[in-house]
Design brief:
Oligomer: heterodimer
Number of helices of chain B: 0
Structural class of chain A: mainly beta
Helix content of chain B: under 10%
Helix content of chain A: under 10%
Number of helices of chain A: 0
Mean pLDDT of chain A: 96
Strand content of chain B: over 45%
Low-confidence stretches of chain A: none
Distance between the termini of chain A: 37 Å
Largest interface: A-B, 27 and 26 residues
Low-confidence stretches of chain B: none
Number of strands of chain B: 11
Structural class of chain B: mainly beta
Order of helices and strands of chain A: EEEEEEEEEEE
């Protein structure tokens, strides 16, 4: 059964460093998302991506964040200068349509020290 | 601000009982409703989707939707200890829908042997 994959599973970085989180969505899906979940809190939407451009972003998704689909399979989230408060689980998700089921990857645990 | 509300629990039921999980949402234009299960430290796993008023059954799970009351519920019959997890209600849709999911804070279910 197709699934969303994410790498790395755990990333430790120092404050101010850049990180890139990688995702491979399900191959026939067209819509891609990043969410984050701070420990003990809700899953929060960060950004949606369709047809090679951002379709919606949240207030969290400021100028320090960017997304890219560099090729036909990968979908990346870059944080340019990490802050302590960026420490969270980051989930990638994909779907065939905006009202359809979204499937989540296993997540990347980002720890900023 | 579009919101999804759930009782955080914990909801404790004996093995074999029916667990009932509830969720309310604020955006009347919402079109799609999902229940995810999340084990500690893991990603959300889709267990049910529902799009129209009424009941939808899948194995031991039944989702119920009442758009007039802006209410979604999940029933788990014959609860098993392996059902112990946090159950997340997620909603999307409305004007300009990009597929963004809005999550509730989740209800923790404990099934006691």
């Amino acid at each position: 059964e197709p699934e969303v994959t994410q790498t790395p599973s755990h990333q430790v970085t120092q404050m101010g460093q850049e990180v890139i989180l990688r995702c491979v969505p399900i191959s026939n899906h067209l819509y891609f998302y990043w969410y984050r979940q701070i420990l003990g809190q809700k899953v929060e939407f960060l950004v949606s991506f369709y047809n090679n451009e951002i379709s919606e972003k949240s207030e969290i998704f400021d100028d320090q964040f960017s997304v890219e689909r560099p090729d036909g399979s990968n979908f990346t989230l870059k944080i340019r200068s990490t802050k302590l408060e960026d420490s969270a689980m980051y989930f990638c998700a994909s779907t065939q349509g905006t009202t359809r089921e979204q499937y989540f990857g296993p997540g990347t645990r980002l720890t900023v020290t | 601000q579009k919101e999804v509300e759930q009782n955080s629990g914990p909801l404790s039921v004996p093995e074999g009982a029916i667990a009932s999980l509830n969720c309310t949402y604020s955006d009347r234009g919402s079109q799609s409703f999902f229940w995810y299960r999340q084990y500690s430290g893991k990603s959300p796993e889709l267990i049910m989707s529902i799009y129209s008023n009424g009941d939808k059954e899948d194995g031991r799970f039944t989702a119920q939707l009442n758009k007039a009351s802006q209410y979604v519920s999940l029933l788990i019959r014959d609860s098993q200890p392996s059902d112990s997890a946090t159950y997340l209600c997620a909603v999307n849709g409305g004007s300009g829908n990009t597929g963004k999911l809005i999550f509730g804070q989740g209800t923790t279910l404990q099934v006691k042997p």
